[in-house]
Amino acid sequence: MECIGDSCEVGIYVRLVWLFVFITTFLAMLLCYLFLSMRKAREQELLSYTFSKLMIECLEIERRRISRELHDIVLPLVKGTSVSDLIRSICIDLMPPDFKRLSLKDSFAQLCAQFSARTNIECACSIEEKIDLSFLNAENQLHLFRMVQESLNNIEKHSKAKYASLVVCDITRGNSVNLLICVCDDGVGLKNISLENEGLGMRSIRQRAAIIRAALDFISESGNGLMVRIEVFREFVNE
What we know:
This protein has helices at about 5-80, 85-95, 105-120, 140-160, 200-210; strands at about 120-125, 165-175, 175-185, 215-220, 225-230. By secondary structure, the chain is an alpha+beta fold. It has a 5-stranded mixed beta sheet.
């Protein structure tokens, strides 16, 4: 039996009201779900960041402790022997640079020179002459120094390279000028780069990059070496 007149209009109106209520309720639930998901993701990101920062801080404390014990306890025992220079070199690597005495640019240059002398791998150090690194505080300078140091250590241990390079320069993106650091080699490279097959060195580099909110890329093809590319955003790094 067909509805007629006002009763039909009322029926249509009721159905539209229920449809509106259903859609509104669905959208409200969807927005609530998205909000809770975003908040949970943000909390997990913050927890991961806090854990990474704490772990790196503990690592630096342990480096200093080991360096002091090697210098004060072990080195006197081997003084005058063939391993004394090796112990001194290890102590220097473990201790952080004094950025009040030596600039980050000079520390990078010294790091490359020490790497070449230790490994016999030629390492070119190209740092843009007028580059300004004053926006980096001491903590972030140390993170970048350790990232470059770990990249060079990986080249020494795994790459079978004959040549390496460090490039530090500015890169323009729109209205922003970012800091770009690249460590490259001509070694065997990596077939597959993923979080699952990264070693401790690469994980450490990734953690430090996350702490200073830098963009990090490991770029490689098997047989064509590896590039560690670090892009530091001036507006984010000291937040």
